């Protein structure tokens, strides 16, 4: 993740959504892609009070493809 200060904070935005897999799990992460060129990720349990991690689309793409490839399956144990 790039830590430059030119990324927007994405705080206070509407349009957050979370995976259908999070139902009944006591919380999950939410994502927001309403600002072109950025994807925000936050803790759904904290909602608007959650800090937001901001990624560029290529960073999210690398993570999602890695997850689909099973690279993070050890975290499910």
Q: What's the quaternary structure here? A: single chain
Strand order of the largest sheet: 1-2-3-4
Largest sheet: 4 strands, antiparallel
Helix content: 10-25%
How many H/I helical runs?
A: 1
Q: Determine the mean pLDDT.
A: 87
The total beta strand count reads: 4
Distance linking N and C termini: 25 Å
Strand content: 15-25%
Low-confidence stretches: none
| Secondary-structure content class | alpha+beta
> What coarse outline follows from CA principal-axis ratios?
globular
Order of helices and strands: EEEEH
**Rg value:** 13 Å
Pfam family, one: DUF397
Domain DUF397: 15-68
Organism: Amycolatopsis thailandensis
InterPro entries: DUF397
Summarize, please:
By secondary structure, the chain is an alpha+beta fold. Helix content is 16%, strand content 18%. It has a four-stranded antiparallel beta sheet with strand order 1-2-3-4.
Describe it.
It is a single chain. The protein has about 80 residues and is an alpha+beta fold. It has a domain at about 25-75. Helix content is about 15%, strand content about 20%. It contains 1 helix and 4 strands, in the order ββββα. It has one helix spanning about 55-70; strands at about 15-20, 30, 40-45, 55. The chain has a 4-stranded antiparallel β-sheet with strand order 1-2-3-4. A hairpin with a 6-residue loop joins strand 2 and strand 3. The protein is globular, with a radius of gyration of 13 Å. It starts with 16 loop residues before the first strand and ends in a 9-residue tail after the last helix.
